[in-house]
Design brief:
The chain is mainly alpha-helical.
């Protein structure tokens, strides 16, 4: 139910902020304001709002979170019991924070830079699930009859996001996606060490 709760809260805040520019500005991620004005809350608050000019930004993030978050939440509960709720929330919020760090380093003196969206946190959740079920099929929205194993999708995703983060030409936070994904992997292995061996064993069977 944590995943559903996050989705509901994010949708409500996003829609409200989209209709109220003052709220939108107060919540967006500005590395400059974080460092100069010590507005550290922005590192997390920006994940609960999305682009004012593109509703699909919100829809896609929440759709992916619903698909992978529901699964990951259940896996955390199965391995950690009731503590799984707490660690799952830490996974999500930690993904937001980790995704914010590259921009904090690169744009702390750029008052024109800002970012919004939960993509970093969603990436953390997606890659956490890949550790547990690396052979699950990933289906693309526009190609519903074609799927690839999750670990192959994950590898291609990381390569693409790393490459695009170096180009920085399209206004998308590729470095945030990359950092969030890596956090999801690292955090899950730390709190559920079995996930690493589950991943390795399934990959061995795949190539076996």
């Amino acid at each position: 139910m944590i995943t559903i709760g996050i989705i509901i809260i994010t949708v409500l805040i996003s829609l409200y902020a989209n209709s109220n520019s003052d709220v939108y500005y107060k919540l967006l991620y500005s590395p400059y304001l974080v460092t100069e004005k010590k507005q550290w809350y922005r590192i997390i608050s920006h994940g609960f709002i999305h682009s004012q000019n593109n509703i699909f930004h919100l829809i896609i993030n929440m759709y992916v979170l619903y698909l992978f978050g529901s699964l990951t939440e259940k896996l955390y509960l199965s391995f950690l019991g009731p503590r799984g709720y707490m660690f799952y929330i830490m996974l999500y919020l930690g993904g937001l924070i980790a995704a914010s760090l590259p921009a904090l380093k690169k744009h702390k003196n750029d008052y024109t830079y800002n970012a919004v969206g939960a993509s970093g946190a969603v990436s953390a959740v997606v890659f956490s699930s890949i550790l547990f079920i690396p052979l699950q099929g990933i289906t693309f929205i526009f190609f519903p009859f074609f799927s690839i194993p999750a670990f192959i999708f994950g590898a291609l995703y990381l390569i693409y996001e790393y490459y695009m983060s170096k180009r920085a030409a399209d206004g998308i936070g590729h470095d945030a996606h990359f950092a969030g994904a890596l956090f999801g992997i690292a955090f899950t292995i730390i709190v559920i060490p079995q996930s690493f061996f589950i991943f390795i064993n399934q990959i061995k069977d795949f190539f076996g």
